[in-house]
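sanity check this record:

:::
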Amino acid sequence: MKRVFRRVASKYSSTFFKIISILTLLCLILYLKSADSSIVVEQPRKAKFSDYDEFIINRAKRTNDSFIAAVLVICATRADALKNHLTQLLSQRPSPNQYHVIISQDGNTDAVQQTAISFVNDFRNVTFMQHERIATKKRDNYPAISAHYKWALDKLFFEKKYDHVIITEDDLDIGNDFFSFFEWGKRILLLDKTIWCISAWNDNGAPNLIDNSKGDLVWRTDFFPGLGWMLTKEIWAELSEQFPISYWDDWMRKPEVRKNRSCIRPEISRTSHNMRLAGKGSSGGMFKDFLSKIGASKSNTDFSLLPASIVEKSNYNKHLIKDIKNSKAVDISNASNSINSSHTYKISYKNVREWNNLAKFFKIMTDIRGGMQRTAYYGVVTVIYQETRVYLVPASTFENPDNLTEYKYDADWDKQNRFIEFENHYCKTKKYIGKCDPHDPAMIAFFTKKGWKKRLSDWGEMIVV
């Protein structure tokens, strides 16, 4: 019998093995099924990123690392300011290939040169160039600044052949989404020829004057803002030959230069003045009270998600007209008691004195250049007051918002507003108690006797209103 079993087992051994393997597998399946309800498979934990980390990661996924723009850093004598600015700029830069940084020094202050060279040595696509500073009168830096700007922009556009340049200055801090804003801005400049610059700066950007919840809110403005801005080679080719010897930024605001074109500016500034490192600057500290309140954005807005259509002129105008129409009219005399967060509001002004009063009420800059107020678009200026939107609107647009684009700036407003500031400084303070007219012989004689003749001259041309 044993002999028979061996013979059968030998003959069918492979079949027996298969049967045993199948039975074993079936038992294992039945066991796992019965135990399934008691087994918990732990899912991998999702990594926790900050908003900024996610912003950087998402941007990296989309980028093809292709070149976007050159960044021109204007500097002269402030080594500490330059170090602070470059540290921020290069830590925020998405890629050395996307943004080439060119440091341009006016003059040869050794500490500035050494600071610049240290960054050139430590970072890719960072270069340094020097401009021979022109001789200027004491306390008058404006001609030197203009000469340096022209030389540097000519170099980048005409010699280095860049098509888009972002201009920054050594006394600026920058926001987290500075580069995202300008990458989007480049797209706008390419699409819309009614826009001639992209600026990271809001002149009325103090925290109480803006909607801090709207990181992606952008506006058109006729008033050239500067302070971190982008332009194209095409625009520079138009400007270079006639670039002024002084006060270049005010020249950019002249109607014959602007040619009815606008800039884009953000609700929340993407740059701010570092007042600790900047000193008084070229303005002699004139605007320190305003500038010190404006901070660079801490938000991480991905501007690539923002459609270009929101700033396209006809579409933008249509929405602005609608907003003005839907806003509730209020008078400046009872604004503080009437304005609340249930509405948006509009206030009318019909002359420069009424504008000046409005600006002082809302604590925004009163100065006017090229007939324009800071941040104005066809004369409309918008601010946040008591946590709601308020539009300051020229009388003609107030009466019929559809006439928005018919509004014309009056260059005489510069001289009229200058007189109002002069009047506030000398006449309303009782420094001079006669007839308040800078052209009046008695007032001229008063300034001459005081040894203030140059002070009077420095005010420039004024129109009494």
Q: What stands out?
A: The mean pLDDT is 89. Residues 13-35 form the longest helix (23 residues). The radius of gyration is 32 Å. Residues 66-303 form a domain with the Spore Coat Polysaccharide Biosynthesis Protein SpsA; Chain A fold (CATH 3.90.550.10).
